[in-house]
Amino acid sequence: MMGFKTTFSLCVSSALVAATAQAAPQQLQVLAVTVPVRAEPSVTSLSLAELSRGAVIGILEQRGDWYKVPLDAQRAGWVQMAPAEYGEMTLVVFDAPAGVAAADGGAEGKADDGIIAARPGATSGVPQAAVLPTIDPSQVPPPQANLPRESLSVPDRWRLMQTLGFKFPWYDPYNQNVLKADLPVLKQYAPDLFFNLGVVSDSLLELRRLPTPVSGQIGIAPGANDIFGRGQQTVMVQNLILNLGLIKGDTTFRPPDYELRFVPVFNFNRAMVQEAGALRIDPSQDKRRTDNFVGIQEMFADVHLRNVSDRYDFDSLRVGIQPFTNDFRGFLFQDSPVGVRLFGNRDNNRWQYNLAAFARFEKDSNSGLNAVGKGLRKDQIYIANLYRQDWPWVGFTSQASIVHNRNQETEKTYDTNGFLVRPAFLGDLRSHRYHVTYLGYSGDGHIGEWNLATSTYFALGHNEHDPLAHSAQKIRAGYHASELSRDFSWIRARASLVLASGDKDPYDNKSTGFDAIMENPQIAGSDTSFSIRQGLPLIGGGGVALSGRNGILPSLRSSKDEGQSNFVNPGLALIGVGADMDLKPELRVFGNVSYLRFMDTRVLEVLRAQSIPSKEMGTDFSVGLHWRPFYNQNVIINSSVAALRPGKALKALYGDKQGTLYSVLFNMVLSF
């Protein structure tokens, strides 16, 4: 009995082996658009090739839903059967026709026998070895092969809505508008030229109380024997900004091919003070000044050089008068110089770069605009920036900067009102040249729930002559600014820190007070803060200011816009807190409190020939509102009140009787 069972098992096994050997070989056909062929049966394995739709090829081996197929006489790879985009499978497996071996298609040394080519325009379609689902007769039939396309011409996609009856006034910026680059223009030259017009009206009324000197030649008020006069001042400014741009290219999906931009600014300003000689060098002129000016703030050509990836990473070149900010908050350099800038990005915009060379224009003294007619200053800036997104934290952008400022200005220069601006009215009044290199790191973004903006700079250079030391000096100075904030629902709380090194000995061979090229700091309340918005004078200490308008550094320059950098200064330490409160979608209220100190007062003691008992500058308070009555940027109303309560150092400079300094401003911006 046992012998019979053993004999029966051997017979069954032999029959199964024979049946397997005689089973029909199998093939597969690709139904997806493409299927990758991988080195191993894994989706993470290296892709060796791709099979296109319709390809039929023999199967060498199967492992689950992976099939080994031949590529050529020496190579084979694996393809996976998986669901495609609309639910069908990427592959279909079927028995090979009679006479086709299992290894046919590459195992015998023929490279392409297993792939049936299907080319556009062929007389026969792809052979469907597998049975595909029948077409639902109720559906629209598929297009037939080799038939000409039947279509009706329609207007371009920009004017299609107008053809359907949707037409909008030319002055309506909220719908399709040829003035807002919604519709192409000059189609006889190119089909994708767009024109963009922007018009901005910026109106300002400012009331302030600042220390004002009495003229050396005349005192208006009876008994005005002191060097300090009445400090009430009123300023009215109206700017009309026209932004004209011509762009070639569809900017929805890729950078434009080129851009031409022209931005003139028409300025009207009026200032009223209580002391003669404060507005003009000639004290016999009125205590009121009315002026107007037209400045060119932008005039450049931007040419798209090339795309370097399928994600439209690019290189572009911009030549002409162009706005530029070196860091995220305007701590070092923010201006509209003329120059050449090469910029672009890489790795899907994770890396960005700037390479630029600029020359600065002379400025109109009363408006701060570019005075193109006065020509260029001998003041050049060379910049190299590299940005990295999501480093070192996701959501945080880091920037490394190398900025070189080379100043060769040796001729005496006076501003529009007759005041000497170069060289500064300080020390021996000798002209001097300097060159300085700034090495910097900046970052902006968020770390979890915390927002952080930070910048750190080291200044290294050489000044050929210092007016106080009467000799050449090395420049070695440092600067750091950070603002940390966090959102609590509709409130953002902020903390600010600014540190700028000061000079301890103005007579040695080293300048250690930090100064920027052209600052416009956005920190600690920015232009609503009194100490940043208002320029503080240094009365009785030479023809220089303690700090410039829209600047925070006590750099002792003759003018922030027109003067030279000065690295012999008292430095600054600022710590502040503030909050931004979105009371309504259209209304934001913000406030800030900052405490300011000098780093060192030695240079002030030399200039004023007096002892400064403290480094305390004072406490700055400011509150303001930002109102958008129509929930957009077309009408914006800003208002703020700021005050500086002088500390012991400022009282020593301005007198013990000097009360609280203040400013009140109203600003309305209308945009089209």
Automatic annotation (TrEMBL):
Superkingdom to which the source organism belongs: Bacteria
Keyword line: Signal
Secretion signal span: 1-23
UniProt protein name: SH3 domain-containing protein
Native species: Duganella rivi
